[in-house]
Write a structure and sequence with these properties.
By secondary structure, the protein is α/β, with parallel strands linked by helices. The chain has a single domain, classed as 3-Layer(aba) Sandwich (Rossmann fold). 36% of the residues lie in helices and 19% in strands. It has a 7-stranded mixed sheet with strand order 3-2-1-4-5-7-6. Helix 3 packs parallel to helix 5 and helix 9 crosses helix 10. The protein is globular. It starts with a helix and ends in a 10-residue tail after the last strand.
Length: 266
C-alpha cells in the first residue's frame, strides 16, 4: 500500500456511521464563524509559533501571500505587516467575509475548494495552509497545487494527530462509538515525500488559550460534530467541562521551497 492509499484509508475511517448521520438535524461540519474570527484576532494580537516564523522569514522583502483554507484568517492576517497583497481561498463565504472585515491588507477572496479553484488563483510569494490537510483525501495533488502557486515558500501547519481525536471520548460517551487514532502528521509527511516533496519539519506546542467550555460557539460546534440535537446542548457543555484541562496543542510545521519534481517524472 502506498503512503497516499494509507492516508486515504485512515481518513475514510472517520466517516460518521449512516444511522447516526441520518438522524442528525444539522450538518456536523458547519463551523461557527465567530469562534474562528476570535481566534484570528487573538493570533493577530500575538503572532507566535513556528509556522508564523517560517512564513515571516520568507516575506523579507515583503511580498504576496496565498492562504488556502483560510477560515477567518488565523494563518495569514498575522503576516499583514509583511504582506503586499493577500489572496484567500475557502469554501465558506461567511468565513471569507469575516476575514475581509478584519484584514489590514488588500485582500482578494476566492470561494471554492482547493485544488478545484487552483487554475484561477494567482501565484504568490508565500503560500500558507493551516489545519486543512486532515480534510483532504487526495493529499499529494493538493500539496503539489500549493507548490505550483508559490515563488518563495510553502508553509503548512497541522496537528500532530487528527484534530477530531480530542472528541473521541465524547463519541464513546454519547454514541458508544470508538473512533480512529490516525492519520498523523508523520503519515502526511510520507505522502508528501512519495509525491516528490521533501519538507522540513518543526514540532512545537501552542500554549493553551483561553478555551471556555461554556463558550456558546464551542459548545454548538461540538454538539453538531457529535450529531446531537439542540436540546442536548447542556449535556455537551457538561461533558466539555468534565474533560481534562489541555496542556496546549501539539503542532507540526512543514515548509518547503517550490523546487519539486513533477509527478510524471517519479
Amino acid at each position: 500500500m502506498t503512503a497516499a492509499e494509507h492516508w486515504r484509508d485512515q481518513l475514510a475511517g472517520w466517516a460518521i456511521p449512516d444511522h447516526i448521520a441520518a438522524a442528525a438535524r444539522e450538518s456536523p461540519w458547519a463551523m461557527p464563524v465567530g469562534y474562528f474570527a476570535r481566534r484570528a484576532r487573538r493570533y493577530v494580537a500575538q503572532p507566535v509559533g513556528a509556522s508564523y516564523a517560517r512564513a515571516a522569514e520568507a516575506l523579507d522583502p515583503p511580498g504576496s501571500v496565498l492562504d488556502v483554507g483560510t477560515g477567518a484568517g488565523a494563518a495569514s492576517l498575522p503576516l499583514a505587516p509583511l504582506t503586499t497583497d493577500l489572496t484567500a481561498v475557502d469554501t465558506n463565504a461567511d468565513m471569507l467575509e469575516a476575514l475581509r472585515e478584519q484584514a489590514g491588507v488588500a485582500v482578494h477572496t476566492i470561494e471554492g475548494r482547493w485544488p478545484d479553484v487552483a487554475s484561477g488563483t494567482p501565484v504568490a510569494d508565500v503560500v500558507v495552509c493551516h489545519h486543512v490537510f486532515y480534510n483532504v483525501s487526495d493529499l499529494a495533488d493538493f500539496a503539489l497545487a500549493l507548490t505550483a502557486h508559490a515563488r518563495r515558500r510553502i508553509v503548512v501547519e497541522l496537528g500532530e494527530r487528527h484534530p477530531l481525536v480530542v472528541l473521541s471520548p465524547l463519541w464513546t460517551l454519547f454514541h458508544g462509538l470508538d473512533r480512529p487514532a490516525g492519520p498523523t502528521a508523520t503519515d502526511a509527511v510520507a505522502v508528501l515525500r512519495e509525491a516528490g516533496i521533501n519538507p522540513r519539519e518543526e514540532r512545537w506546542r501552542r500554549p493553551p488559550g483561553a478555551v471556555d467550555a461554556d463558550d456558546a460557539d464551542l459548545v454548538e460546534m461540538t454538539r453538531r460534530r457529535l450529531c446531537l440535537p439542540p436540546e442536548r446542548r447542556d449535556e455537551v457543555a457538561e461533558a466539555l467541562r468534565a474533560q481534562p484541562a489541555g496542556g496546549g496543542t501539539d503542532l507540526v510545521t512543514l515548509w518547503w521551497e517550490p523546487q519539486v519534481r513533477s509527478r510524471t517524472t517519479l
